[in-house]
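[recover] target loaded
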């Protein structure tokens, strides 16, 4: 009988050991506890990813200030070195500042988009706990390095471009990693609602990043980057201690396991074994996996049953066991899955709109009103508050109707007039600005959130894959990577268009992008409506 060594996180081992010593008679649903922990850890992780992206949009208002008309605060000594740059920051102190700041956004986002495709390929083949922890540590260091420019008086454009590009590469570890982990632990029931609520980490991260950056932006903008960077590095260490990327890692049965049927259950009320060891035994000529007498599963094809390592360096058990060695799907195979290309190109334009707001909204509010940099940053968080509601609403409607493409199309259609109204009357009063930002956030972020979560997870487990391929991280990377190219193009165009043609034309660009995103979903919308009509006729 051969034992399978599992790479159980140290923090979970400590919790198991403590609970067994302090309360050996306690009974609890381990699967439920682990699922709750997975949601909390991945939520924390991706909140930090977005928290570290947001400071640049807040600090733009300070980097490009005109110092000649302002007086320095008493805590900043003025000398020959910083006499002309105590508030603004070369090389962003010229009329071309919007274009230069847009270049920083593009350096991050193009690096992010290019590395995302490779990141999804790697995520299918390594331990996601190490993958996410390393990515978060690298992202935190990159964010911290940007803030160090303030402390060490660095004014090289290439330094800022390099740090942003480095941060973009490390940030690609986040989305394929967390979506795959959550997909491993949760089945398809109410996936849209679960992902909708869980996806609020994106907006919460933006909100926290804005508030933290706003706290320091007019005092020491370097801290606007250094504090989120330090927090993110610490959060990466937390994931390293506690994240179990796969149920089998801790002796739990994955939801809807493929290739197995349940043979025996004894003395258990959940889907986790109470032992620390998973054994593979030859019983009566059949291959079975035995969880110390608690669970026993039999391969539907006993001649070809196998268990193999999901990752290195430590051996773990993958969620699917089937004939032959399980192979991660390639890019060409993933792109052939029905719907992947349509959703990818639609997300290109949807994410273009969302990330233009992410990187330029505080600057736009300052330019169109008389609000301070701090108030503009605080006000911009309402767009993300609306985004939380939009992600949940899109997920619930998708679950209820079974029509993800139609859900996205309706929200994209309503977003176009909302952006037009916000552009023309949003700055008329604070109350109008607040209401329209909430509505715009709901409609703009709803489709983006649904496509990158529930839709990606659904396509990554599409029936056309059969039972022999892993595709969740690859499909997620293809969809989000294509969308990230749009996310890189949007802020770059916004900087150029606002400089040469004004903010009204930026909004026309965003409205056109939403229309194109809608048109690219038209075939899938038609399919959703046709399938809905067929279901109605069979009732």
């Amino acid at each position: 009988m051969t034992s399978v060594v599992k790479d159980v996180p140290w923090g979970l081992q400590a919790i198991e050991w403590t609970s067994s010593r302090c309360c050996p008679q306690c009974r609890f649903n381990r699967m439920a506890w682990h699922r709750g922990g997975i949601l909390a850890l991945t939520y924390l992780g991706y909140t930090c990813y977005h928290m570290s992206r947001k400071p640049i949009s807040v600090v733009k208002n300070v980097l490009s200030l005109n110092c000649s008309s302002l007086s320095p605060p008493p805590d900043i000594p003025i000398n020959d070195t910083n006499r002309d740059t105590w508030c603004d920051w070369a090389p962003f102190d010229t009329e071309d500042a919007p274009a230069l700041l847009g270049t920083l956004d593009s350096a991050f986002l193009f690096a992010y988009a290019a590395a995302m495709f490779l990141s999804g390929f790697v995520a299918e083949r390594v331990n996601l706990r190490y993958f996410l922890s390393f990515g978060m540590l690298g992202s935190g260091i990159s964010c911290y390095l940007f803030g160090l420019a303030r402390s060490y008086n660095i004014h090289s454009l290439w330094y800022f471009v390099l740090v942003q590009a480095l941060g973009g590469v490390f940030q690609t570890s986040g989305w394929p990693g967390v979506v795959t982990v959550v997909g491993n632990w949760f089945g398809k029931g109410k996936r849209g609602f679960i992902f909708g609520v869980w996806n609020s980490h994106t907006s919460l991260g933006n909100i926290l990043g804005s508030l933290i950056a706003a706290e320091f932006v007019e005092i020491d903008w370097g801290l606007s980057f250094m504090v989120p960077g330090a927090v993110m590095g610490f959060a990466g260490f937390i994931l390293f201690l506690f994240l179990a990327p796969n149920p089998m890692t801790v002796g739990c049965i994955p939801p809807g396991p493929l290739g197995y049927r349940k043979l025996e259950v004894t003395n258990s009320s959940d889907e986790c074994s109470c032992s620390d060891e998973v054994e593979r035994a030859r019983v009566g000529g059949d291959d079975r996996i035995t969880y110390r007498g608690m669970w026993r599963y039999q391969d539907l094809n006993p001649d070809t049953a196998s268990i193999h390592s999901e990752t290195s360096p430590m051996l773990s058990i993958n969620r699917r066991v089937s004939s032959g060695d399980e192979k991660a799907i390639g890019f060409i195979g993933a792109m052939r899955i029905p719907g992947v290309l349509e959703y990818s190109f639609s997300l290109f334009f949807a994410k273009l709109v969302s990330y233009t707001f992410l990187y330029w909204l505080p600057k736009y509010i300052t330019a169109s009103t008389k609000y301070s940099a701090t108030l503009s940053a605080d006000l911009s968080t309402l767009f993300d508050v609306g985004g939380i509601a939009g992600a949940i609403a899109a997920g619930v409607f998708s679950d209820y109707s079974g029509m993800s493409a139609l859900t996205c199309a309706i929200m994209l259609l309503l977003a176009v007039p909302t952006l037009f109204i916000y552009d023309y009357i949003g700055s008329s009063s604070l109350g109008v600005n607040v209401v329209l930002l909430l509505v715009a956030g709901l409609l703009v972020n709803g489709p983006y959130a649904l496509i990158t979560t529930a839709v990606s997870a659904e396509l990554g487990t599409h029936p056309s894959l059969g039972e022999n391929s892993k595709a969740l991280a690859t499909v997620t990377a293809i969809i989000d990577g294509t969308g990230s190219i749009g996310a890189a193009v949007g802020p770059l165009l916004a900087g150029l268009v606002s400089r040469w043609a004004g903010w009204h034309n930026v909004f026309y660009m965003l409205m056109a992008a939403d229309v194109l995103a809608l048109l690219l979903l038209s075939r899938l919308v038609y399919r959703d409506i046709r399938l809905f009509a067929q279901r109605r006729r069979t009732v």
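[recover] notes: Strands lie at 2-4, 260-265, 278-283, 286-290, 295-299, 327-328, 469-470.
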